[in-house]
Design goal:
Blueprint lengths: L5 E4 L5 E5 L4 E2 L7 E2 L6 H13 L16 E4 L4 E6 L4 E4 L17 E3 L12 E3 L5 E3 L4 E3 L24 E3 L4 E6 L6 E3 L11
Antiparallel strand pairs: 1-2, 3-4, 5-6, 6-7, 8-9, 10-11, 12-13, 13-14
Length: about 200
């Protein structure tokens, strides 16, 4: 009997199935297992190898999985492993939120969050604002949209219309004028008073 029967075991030595001579097993694993002398086994053997090479890549998970078996979920572009203890497919690389980190967009940036998988990535963008335009490879300003008086730390006492301030020559002086140009003051000459440059 033993010479005509294949006893198939997993890597831990546990018996998965027994296959009689000339028979096929399609329910013990995700592959087709053949007994001794099974006819026309070549095609199914080759197909088994392809499934293993591509990790059963498909939108749907393979049937009859074994503990530790890999499956590439084509719909989500993610790798899963079958865990017998929980009887479920578990993501090989867990989502970023389960790893306890996130990317935070700091001052002047937008975006961030939990990185997406395959490949792991997150996008940060420079934030636009009044008078500021951001493109893929440049930051530019539109000066006509920027209001000087609305800028941070603007102090109206430091920014005045120079034409509205006049320097007036007092008693004994001549000259002066508004601040739109350089002004000078001269000491006025009079009876008995001579004024020189120095």
């Amino acid at each position: 009997m033993a010479a005509n029967t294949y006893i198939i075991k997993n890597s831990r030595g546990n018996t998965l199935t027994t296959i009689e001579r000339g028979k096929r097993d399609t329910t013990s694993t995700s592959l087709v297992l053949h007994g001794r002398g099974a006819p026309e086994y070549g095609l199914e053997r080759d197909q088994n190898l392809v499934y293993l090479l591509e990790n059963f890549a498909n939108n749907d998970s393979p049937s009859n999985p074994l503990d530790g078996q890999l499956w590439w979920n084509s719909a989500q572009d993610e790798m899963y492993v079958w865990e017998e203890d929980v009887e479920d497919w578990v993501l090989v690389v867990p989502p970023a939120q389960t790893q306890g980190f996130t990317i935070v967009a700091g001052a002047g940036l937008t975006g961030g969050g939990f990185p997406s998988l395959s490949p792991a990535s997150v996008t940060l963008n420079i934030g636009e604002g009044t008078g500021i335009t951001v493109t893929a490879d440049a930051i530019s300003t539109n000066d006509s949209e920027i209001v000087h008086d609305n800028l941070n730390n603007f102090d109206s006492n430091e920014h005045v219309n120079h034409g509205s301030i006049n320097l007036t020559a007092g008693n004994g002086l001549t000259g002066g004028g508004d601040l739109t140009a350089s002004r000078s003051f001269d000491v006025g000459a009079g009876d008995g008073i001579t004024v020189n440059a120095k």
